[in-house]
Amino acid sequence: MPVAAEAVPERLVAAPRDERGRLVPALGEATGHAHAVPGAGTLLVRRGSDMPEFLHLPEGGRLVYEEHAAISLPKGWFRVVRQREYVPGSYARYVAD
Questions:
Q1: How far is it, in rounded angstroms, from Cα 81 to Cα 95?
Q2: Minimal CA–CA distance to 26: which of 6, 4, 2, 45?
Q3: Least buried of 8, 15, 22, 68, by fewest C-beta within 10 Å?
Q4: Considering the entire predicted model, what is its pTM?
Q5: Rounded mean pLDDT of 5-26?
Q6: What pLDDT score does 91 carry?
Q7: CA-CA distances (angstroms) from residue 23 to 35, 41, 66?
């Protein structure tokens, strides 16, 4: 989700890239596939957490996933949001793919 640079907290650290050099905002729990950004950019996390919160793409980029078409992203800042689904009679849980 696009956000203004002013909305990004200052105390974030860069997340490491995976073994293929990609930024990985989310891994597929069921398939093991990754939502990944293969090009330039920075994935940021809050200290003490391993869940990415923000993605900075100074040149724009693409979010790729093995099971659907790539999504082109303009340059800028993005908040990483994991989708949730409602489980009737229970609670909301993160969507697994």
A1: 11
A2: 45
A3: 68
A4: 0.71
A5: 83
A6: 66
A7: 9, 8, 15
CA 89 to mean position of chain CA atoms: 29
Tell me whether residue 16 is exposed, middle or buried, using C-beta atoms within 10 angstroms of its C-beta: 0 to 12, 13 to 18, 19 or more.
Answer: exposed
Residue 95 has pLDDT above 70, yes or no: no
Q: Which of 4-13, 32-41, 85-94 holds the top average pLDDT?
A: 4-13
The domain limits of the chain are 2-94
Half-sphere exposure of 39 toward its Cβ, with a 13 Å CA cutoff?
14
Sheet holding 42-46, edge to edge: 2-3, 76-79, 52-57, 42-46, 12-14
Give the C-alpha separation, 33 to 14, whole Å: 22
- Round to whole Å and give the CA distance between 20 and 97: 21
Cβ atoms of 78 and 1 within 8 Å: the answer is: yes
Nearest-angstrom CA–CA distance, 13 and 70: 26
d(CA 75, CA 61): 7
